[in-house]
Please model this.
Amino acid sequence: MVIGPRYAAISGWGMALPERVVTNEELARRLDTSDEWIRSRTGISQRYVAAPDEYTSVLATRAGRAALERAGLPPAAVDMVIVATCTPDRPFPATACTVQANLGIPGGGAFDLAAACSGFVYGLSMATALIKSGMSNCLLLVAVDVFTHLINWNDRSTCVLFGDGAGAVVLRASAEPLGLIAANLGAWGEGEMLMAVDAGGTRLPLTPDLLQTGRQYVHMNGREMFRHAVRGMAESAEQALAAAGLRFEDVALVIPHQANLRIIEAVARRLGLPLDRFFVNLDRYGNTSAASVPIALCEAVEQRRVQAGDYVLLTAFGGGLTWGSSVVRWG
Ligand code: UT7
Model:
């Protein structure tokens, strides 16, 4: 029982990837594209693509189990499961309920959160609020997307960009000032169609005719998304840092959403920071949507680029439009 100010310390972390790697060369063999174009325009060399039996809850469960093991906690300790995803197993029920069952978590709440590529950053704020309010003592947050299910594999302007994966953290109530210290969340609904899957919901239900139009696949205005992403991540990172009362010099590492290396470079330039202060792994994974930030966080921790007591700045941007940044004290 935590008495006094409550914080939500990250006490476990884990990630999961599908087995199959698809290289740029493989895509270039069946599409009008090239390894050179993909690498120079995006920084991506390969991505992991889920098999039919590696659907969302399967990857989420693997990442969640790894995070619980790392935290040294039994499933029964968890009283809340949040799954941040825009590619759930089914329209309903929530994939979080499936993950709860798969992990043998005996009770508590479970729900999904849809904020596209900003899902982990949004989820961290919701999770921390639940712990700070006393509604949860130990929470599993999984961010997962199997975006390759939404892709038209004949559309070279989108299919080369995305990969699948899951990342998870366990948050526990703590009296020490650890975990999320300050955050900034934003959305601009007017930009909803800059990146969307138009059909398959209640607005445009799937029909055999509609399937012929390709509107069940993700479409994106890449140039506009690029522009909004740079501004959204840079401004929200500055605001979150100011809310924490910190300067960029105080931050050990910036972990940005991994959509495009050129976006990360432009954010770094805009903030006046060298690129080596940013964690980059999109060359191996592509854009894994909600999973991109927690997968990068897991790797940064394993590579010891984040140590106990360090401040880490997470920043993300995605469809919605949504964006957000989190200042996290690691420990
Ligand atoms: O996860 C959050 C949301 N996503 C993003 O933030 C993504 C943001 N956008 C981007 O990363 C970039 O805009 C892309 C990587 C999607 C595209 O890069 P770009 O430099 O903006 O290229 P473009 O869309 O302006 O296309 C340039 C050319 C076009 O040909 P023309 O019209 O100049 O003849 C495209 O048809 O490149 C062509 N092109 C390709 N060529 C080879 C587009 N995709 C490909 C491809 N291979 N895969």
Q: What stands out?
A: Residues 7-177 form a domain with the Peroxisomal Thiolase; Chain A, domain 1 fold (CATH 3.40.47.10). The chain has a mean pLDDT of 97. The pocket of oxa(dethia)-CoA is lined by residues 33, 37-38, 41-42, 117, 156-157, 160, 195, 222-223, 225-226, 229, 259-260, 263, 287, 317-318 (CB under 6 Å). The longest helix spans residues 222-244.
